[in-house]
Amino acid sequence: MSAEASVGSNAADTARSVCPNTEDCPNRGLLGSKYVKLNVGGSLHYTTVQTLSKEESLLRSICNGETAVTIDSEGWVVLDRCGRHFAIVLNFLRDGSVPLPDDHRELDEILKDAQYYQVQGLVQHCLSAMQKQKDILETVCRIPMITSVKEEQKMIATCRKPVVKLQNNRGNNKYSYTSNSDDNLLKNIELFDKLVLRFNGRVLFVKDVLGDEICCWSFYGEGRKIAEVCCTSIVYATEKKQTKVEFPEARIFEETLNILIYENNRGSGGVHLLDSKGLSVGASEEEGATGGGDRRVRRIHVRRHIMHDERGHGQQTVYKD
Predict the structure, then answer these.
(1) Are 77 and 67 in contact (CB under 8 A)?
(2) Which of 110, 106, 103, 107 has the alpha carbon at shortest distance from 89?
């Protein structure tokens, strides 16, 4: 039975109704009481009329007799409402403020109770807490971790934002690494984190730790790959092969800026890209079709194969692509 509903005549033997006109009502209700016993959905609470009357609310109207309620044979005011969060409502009336849970679902339940009991102060308190949580969530950078090729394809195909993927697999150590490779690998990861913070909300950044490449950047727009920057190379030294990881910071940042033209489906417009020399190139020219509707992917491999000549240590190194 609702707290606003009066008791029917068939329940008069076991319950009494608090009515506005105390002279006509056999029980004076809560008007002359100092303490109140509340049974809220089986949750028992003992408080004062003064506490319940602190704010203009349904509870005050119950105390002053404006709202009819059910009182059982033991004097408990019965409210047909879940009593899980009623203690929070009472504590707010007592103190004027109350700590709220971080869980959004519980916070929403407290808001619903505050609206039902018409405690406007608690309603505003809950709404402010919800807005604060929303603001915090908007500033949090979430980076998906790819676990399968199928998951990657689905994520890129359904995402409406440009996508930047860093493939980072340090475990692919077929050859030993050069002395600066570990530092450059960390620099690539640090640059990824900086780009996430800078373009949060505009670009979806994902990490792939399962691929074959040790360090490779991929850039996607409108569900297709636009460019790729591979940062690894094989050094053909005199004694053994080595894997070298580069850190082409300028090129990576350039491709990240280029991918922004696909933000909000603007990729088909007349926006210009930057080529490898920093010159402006029309998007239609840069993405020219190769036939059958396919489009080219800009693939940048940093010093893919490096071979040292036979001169002494410290002499010139010859690079062959």
Answers:
(1) no
(2) 110
Q: Are 79 and 44 in contact (CB under 8 A)?
A: no
Q: Residue-wise pLDDT tens for the chain (321 aa)?
A: 333 333 333 333 333 334 444 444 433 456 667 889 999 999 999 999 999 988 899 999 988 888 888 888 888 999 999 999 999 999 999 999 999 998 889 999 999 999 999 999 999 999 999 888 877 766 667 788 888 888 888 888 888 899 999 998 887 677 788 888 999 999 999 999 999 988 888 899 999 888 788 899 999 998 889 999 999 988 886 678 888 899 999 999 999 999 999 887 655 544 444 444 444 444 333 333 333 444 667 777 665 444 444 334 444 444 444
- Antiparallel, parallel or unpaired: β 305-307 and 232-236: parallel
| Residue 212: alpha-carbon gap to chain centroid | 30
Cβ atoms within 10 A of the Cβ of 33, count?
A: 14
Write out the H or E segment, with its range, that includes residue 163.
strand 163-168
The CB-based long-range contact list for 144-147 (8 Å cut-off, 24+ gap) reads: 144/204, 144/206, 144/207, 145/206, 145/207, 145/208, 145/209, 146/206, 146/207, 146/208, 146/209, 146/210, 147/210
Q: In residues, how long is the chain?
A: 321
Closest CA to 262 of 199, 169, 194, 314: 199
Query: What is the enclosing helix (H) or strand (E) of 182?
Result: helix 181-198
Helices (H) and strands (E) in the chain, counts: 9, 20
Work out whether strand 204-208 and strand 145-146 pair parallel, antiparallel, or are unpaired.
parallel
3-state secondary structure 18-67: CCCCCCCCCCCCCCCCCEEEEEECCEEEEEEHHHHCCCCCHHHHHHCCCC
Q: Which two tokens stand for residue 115?
A: 């609206």
pTM for this prediction: 0.49
